[in-house]
Every structure is written in structure tokens, then in C-alpha cells.
Design brief:
alpha+beta, disordered C terminus, 6 strands
């Protein structure tokens, strides 16, 4: 385990996050079943893009925002946490890619007034295997930092933290083949939430 934090605290943090973001069936399988043995943690240097709506938009606008979010995340090969109420968190291993994603998401938001923040730094990445696939999600201080940076943005604006902006954003654009793709995890956490919801599985914890 490549982390300096006690494993019990990391397991508690992951348990709380999964319980609040994913259906109870996923939590039960991961923490009360054999899938618990698949959990591992790694320290990675990540850049996170946090976006949230200043005020709830109409259903059609929110749905268009989700479509743009998925499209851009696929293009830039990030990893999305489950998202609700026009709030999203995407993880990237490259800060320049995260900044491009944030700026394009701002332009593509349509009728949803977003506040977007980008933060970079060391982050604990939790990996676990559910339903035969490997998933990952960030834990710890960096997700909170990204949310705080987003909260400091004006409606419709993007704030990039100093540690992220230190990257030379003026360098030549990267080709799609050069984008990091989290090759060590197969599917992002948001699609696990969608798949579980579509199956209408609800096992009480």
C-alpha cells in the first residue's frame, strides 16, 4: 500500500464516500463481501476539476450539461465521480489536461451557471473491484481543496489554483493520443452509479 495514512482511516473515508454516492448494493458488496479484499490505495499527483451549479437549472439544461460533461471527460480521458444536481468531480493525472477540460466545460455548460475550480497536488487514490471491473476515486484533502477553489469562482467562472497554474499552459496542445487515460482502472465511478441505478438494485445496509 503506497500511502502514509493508516489504512483504517482510508477504509472509513472510502466507505463513507461509497455509501453517500453509490447504491447500497455496491457498498454491501464492497465492504461486507469478498470484494473488500480488492481495495487498495495509492498516492498519486492529480489535478481535480470540481464544478457545481450556482442555482438549479431546468431539467433539460441539466441533462445537456451532463451530456457535455460525459463528452468532455471522454475526450480528455479523465475519471468522473458520480454527479448529482449539476455538481461534478473529474480526476486527471495531467494539470494541463485538467485546465483544458475546465475551460471547455465552462463554454459548453449552456443554460447552467457553473462555478469551476481546478486544484492539483498529492492525492490518495482508492482502487477497488466491483462487478468484475476496477474502479478508482480520489480521497482526502485534494477533493475538498478543489471544491473550495470552485466556491471562490464567480457564476460562470473558472478559478485555477496557483499550484495548477504553475504548469506552462501556453505550450503546444497535446494530441489526444498523449492524454493520460488512467489505464489502471477500467471504468469511472460515475458509470458504476448509473449502471447500478438502471438495474434498480436496493439492498438495505
Amino acid at each position: 500500500m503506497n500511502t502514509n495514512e493508516p489504512s483504517a482511516l482510508l477504509l472509513e473515508a472510502l466507505s463513507d464516500k461509497v455509501l453517500h454516492q453509490l447504491p447500497p448494493a455496491v457498498w454491501r458488496g464492497l465492504f461486507l463481501g469478498a470484494e473488500r479484499d480488492t481495495i487498495r490505495f495509492e498516492q498519486r499527483h492529480l489535478s481535480l476539476v470540481h464544478a457545481d451549479a450556482v442555482a438549479p437549472g431546468d431539467g433539460a439544461a441539466i441533462e445537456r450539461f451532463y451530456q457535455q460533461l460525459q463528452r468532455l471527460n471522454t475526450r480528455y480521458k479523465g475519471r468522473l465521480d458520480p454527479y448529482v444536481d449539476a455538481t461534478a468531480l473529474a480526476s486527471f493525472e495531467d494539470s494541463t489536461t485538467a485546465m483544458r477540460m475546465a475551460l471547455e466545460l465552462q463554454r459548453a455548460a449552456g443554460g447552467v451557471a457553473l462555478r469551476i475550480g481546478v486544484a492539483s497536488g498529492p492525492c490518495t487514490l482508492a482502487y477497488f473491484r466491483v462487478r468484475g471491473r476496477l474502479w478508482c476515486t480520489p480521497l482526502g484533502e485534494l477533493p475538498r481543496r478543489a471544491a473550495d477553489v470552485a466556491a471562490s469562482a464567480p457564476a460562470g467562472g473558472v478559478v485555477i489554483s496557483p499550484e495548477t497554474f504553475a504548469v506552462d499552459f501556453a505550450r503546444a496542445p497535446a494530441h489526444d493520443d498523449d492524454m493520460p487515460d488512467f489505464g489502471d482502472s477500467e471504468v469511472d465511478l460515475s458509470s458504476l452509479a448509473l449502471a447500478a441505478a438502471s438495474e434498480a438494485i436496493d439492498i438495505c445496509v
